[in-house]
Structure formats: structure tokens, C-alpha cells
Amino acid sequence: MAKGTINVSVENIFPLIKKFLYSDHEIFLRELISNATDATLKLKHLSSIGEGKVVYKNPQIEIKIDKEGKKLHIIDQGVGMTKEEVGKYINEVAFSGAEEFLEKYKDSAKDSGIIGHFGLGFYSAFMVAERVEIITKSYLENEDAVKWECDGSPEFTLVKDKRKEVGTEIILHIAEDSTEFLEEHRINELLSKYNKFMPIPIKFGTKEIADPKHTPKTTKDKDGKETTEPQKMITVDNIVNNPNPAWTKQPADLKKEDYTSFYRELYPMQFEEPLFNIHLNVDYPFNLTGILYFPKMKANLDVQKDRIQLYQNQVFVTDNVEGIVPEFLQMLRGVIDSPDIPLNVSRSYLQADGAVKKIASYITKKVGDKLQSLFKKDRAEFEKKWNDIKIVIEYGMLSEPKFFEKAQKFALFPTVDNTYFTFDELKTKVKDVQTDKDGNLVLLYATNAEEQHGYTEQAKEKGYEVLLLDSPIVSHLIQKFETENSEMSADKTPIKFVRVDSDSIDNLIKKDEEHISKLSDDEKGKLKEIVEGIVPKEKYTVQLEALDSKSNPFTITQPEFMRRMKEMQATGGGGMMGMSNFPEMYNLVVNTNNELMQKILKAKGKREEYVSQALDLAKLSQNLLKGKDLTDFIKRSFDLLK
Ligand code: ADP
Ligand code: MG
Q1: Do 90 and 126 share a structural domain?
Q2: Does some domain include residue 550?
């Protein structure tokens, strides 16, 4: 029997490991299964290059709970270790056999999928175990099996063992404070979190299934009564993982259904189908595979829990992809697998990492390309999906300049009548009718087709196109379009976005037309005085306009600039500080050419009634009439019917 001291420079590394190395104790199982997987993949590799007398059948990894004995077993059929190897790989903490293997078989093994590389994973076992045994037999001929044992102090024992099969069994004597890991449901939970897609089948217990070789017979007795014999059941291994997940396959080998069923596998609780997917696959200058899905997006950017999952060689690492996936794409779902992401560093450092930056811009580019090709291939279908994907695209346009550029080709501007324009198409379409006297191209929009219906109809009557822009970040986006297409950019026509209810119809797009007022200047002065005396001054600025006599007498508008700044501030980012403290201010546009104005000027006794009624109607069309004002309005209206 050999005795020795684990070779570490620190006096006792175990308390350190227990406390600091991994904040999450549960990852010990992931680490041990990763080692078992590595050992199996090594054997597979050795057999593929015909080294020695390697036998590689259909190896699996088995997890076993021994509740009475308070033990957890992890058993593999991999390469195993010789006595010397245990000495080297296990007793020298931070010496990685995985790295050594990759170094030795450099060229042939680089795609073998070997996981380990820090040489620390094994010791995570001591986070949950008070004693650990390794029983292992190397694939090399004439090597005895050995048993290593250690109780968490730097002392270990190493003795011969009678194990016959090649492979390794790790036995964890679970510590008092970690007995949760002797519960089947807890182990199941871990296996499905970390090991669901690992490349070697993992067996955890057995299950009963209907015997596929047996079809129950149905017999009829003499009265014609049918009886069916019971189905024979058989016991089979319960394999908990899918060793060949979709993202490890070639896109050409996958059909649409395969992508959908993989989505189900990833998110069993998601009942809606994804809209489409993007298969990622690069091996230079970094290694990355994965599948991203566009789910139907809710208009409110609520925190979603089914997020993109990050894997390294099919081992789950995290579902926090902050710093790796550009923010606007974190709304997507799916999987990214890359061994090249340095995860042992802080997130802020990660964002500065060159390789990670390249990964982020690769993903952005792929998403842009995919959207563009969907748009080109089937525009009608793309238009149908637009409402469900626009949030991601619009957010991307705001946050990634490169994506903004690319998205010019497929970002859509829908009208209230469901016509979809690209930005260029829109400009061409409205150029003649919607250029104002100063040469600005004015793009009209509504944010709510129902609420702004009256204003929209007026604009449409004038032959204007009215867009329906209803995402929560639209104020930021149109601001960006205006900046990109301002007087500053010499080659472009300046663009202005104006909401349909932000001014009187004639002022939305100012033309060089003279409007003749039916009222004299004297009458106008008097009218203004009357109206201002009745409507609440602190809320409304009275603005007289000589509009079409058929246009409404009173209209309430809210200037574009003020409203937009407020919105931008409410949704975060740009805008002006303190803007939210501004009172809600509106303009009351009074149409001097409407017949009602004569009535107001003449009828002294009914003045107040006319003005109040007209104001309330204007408020009603802006959805501003509420509470007591609404009650008074209804009463007044009924009185008028008398
Ligand atoms: P890493 O996996 O990063 O190399 P670990 O601490 O997890 O570091 O493991 C150290 C080494 O011990 C491995 O590289 C491997 O050589 C050896 N080892 C651990 N577990 C097994 C196993 N189940 N079968 C064979 N070798 C193993
Ligand atoms: Mg390891």
C-alpha cells in the first residue's frame, strides 16, 4: 500500500476549493461526468487511430445512488488510469490530463470534443463528499487496477484493486451537509440542467417500457366477448441525455421539423412554435456552433426565463450570455456551443476580449444575413411575421451600427392599412405629396390606430400615407432615422417623423398655401379671448388656424418634440433630463373657418356651452375625456337633446 501527500504548494487546498473555487456546489456532478466523458472520448479516439488493442463498443456512463451507504457512484468505460497516471493526474492538483492528451495527439484530436482543461474539476468532488474513492483500470495491457482514496486532507492512499473491466468508478461518500445529492429528484434535476446534451449516453436507473417484441393477443370467447392479454413490460436502462443534439449536426441534414422538435427538447414548457431559426457553424477564427430561434415576441420587453443556453463541448455552462451575445439578440432562444469562450474571467473582462467580440459580431452578421434572405425569398411571409420580430430588429438597429446598415434592406414600415414599405420604398412613395415647403420629407405615423383614428382619417383624406409604428422603442428609432437623414448628410433628403395628432392637419406638412380666414382680425382677437376664458389655461395653448370649413372646429394636438422626448425618457436612454416633470401640455387648434365660430361670437348666452361642448368633443377624440369631465359632458349632451 502506498501512502503519499498530494502535491500542492498550498498547505491545504481543500477548504479553499470548498469555499472559493466554485460558488455552486452542484457543479461537481457536471465536472465528474465531464471527466468520464473525456475518458470515453479518449478511448474512442485511440480506437479510431488504431492504437494498441483498444476495444470500443457502446460505452455509457452510469450514475448510481446508494442511499443507505450514503454514496454516489459515477462509473465510466473510458481509458481508465494506471497507477502512475493517478499519481500524475490526480495527485498533482492543477495538472490536466486532458490538456496533456490534446497536446500529445495534437492534430488528430483537436475535434475529439474533449472538455477538461484546467485540471481542477475533479477536486470539486470534495465540495460535497467527505471521502472520495477512485477505482480505475487502464486500457493498457498488463496494468493492474488501482484504488485511490482520500478524505479531503492532503493525505491519500493508493492500493491495488481487483477490478477487471477497463474504466473508472468514482465513489463519493456524501458529506452530512450535502445529503440532497442522495435524492433521485435532485440528481435528475442536475442531469437535465448540465448533461442533457452530453455526447456519451448517461444511464441513471432503469425504466419499464412495453416490450417491442410483444403484441398483446385479443381472443374471443364463445359469446363473442373479446379479451386482450396484458402488455408485457421489460426493464431497460434509463438514458437521460440526447448525445446527438441538433446543433452538432450539419444544417443540410436537418429538416424544419428537426429544428422544431429540438426547440421542444430545449424548452419543454414552451408551447408556441418558433418563427424561424438560424444555424450557426464556424471553425475559424474561433469555434462556434449553435442554433438560435426567433420566438414570437411580446410587445412589452418582459424578462423572459427561457433564455439562450451556453454550452462548451455539449456541457451546459450557463444561460447568462451577457457579454457574449449582443444585447438585442438576448431576446432570442436557443443554444450556443463554443470551447473558445473564456468563462473563468469576469463578465466585464469578457466583453473586452477580442475573441468574444468577434463571436458577437459573427452572430450579429448571421442574424442579419438570415433576415435578409428570408425577406428576399418570401416577402409576404416576412411581412406576416414582422410584428412578432420587429422588436428584435428595431432594438438591433438602435444598438448596433452595422446591423442598422444591413437592416435598411429588410426593416419594414407598415401603414395603418397594412401595406409594408422598406425605408427606400416609403421615401419614393410619399416624396411628391409629403415634402414640405422647406424640402423636408415628412413621414406621418400613428402609434395606436384606434386612439388616433380621427387624425389618421384626416391625413389619409389628404392623400398622405400614415405609418403604424407601435413598438415601445419607436421614439428612439425614428430619432435615429432623423439623425441619419438630416441636413448634415449632404446626399440625403432631410426626414421628419410626425405623429398624426401632433398638429392641425394643414400644419403637419406645411405647404406654401395661403389660407383665407373667414374672420377679420378683430373677430379673431375676440374669439381667442372668449375661448381662453373658458378652457383651462394651464393645460391648453389656444392656436387659431384658418382651416377647411369642413374640418373640425376644435382639435387637440400635442407637439411632436415634447411628446417624443417624454417617451424616450420613459423607455430609457436619450432624451432630456427632467422632462418627465413637465406638465402635460396640449395645443387647442381652433378652426376659424368652421361655422361654429360665428355662433360662438354671436350667441352670448350659449357661449360657454358651445365652447365646453366643442372642447369635450376634441378631448374625446384624443381619448382625454375622463372622470367628472366625462360625466358633465354626457349630462350636457343629453340636455342638448331636449
Ligand atoms: P481536467 O479535466 O481539466 O483535465 P480534472 O481535475 O477534472 O482536470 O481531472 C484531472 C485529470 O484526471 C484528467 O485530465 C484525467 O487525466 C484524469 N481523470 C479524471 N477523471 C478521470 C476518469 N473518469 N477516467 C480517466 N481519467 C480521469
Ligand atoms: Mg475535468
Answers
A1: yes
A2: yes
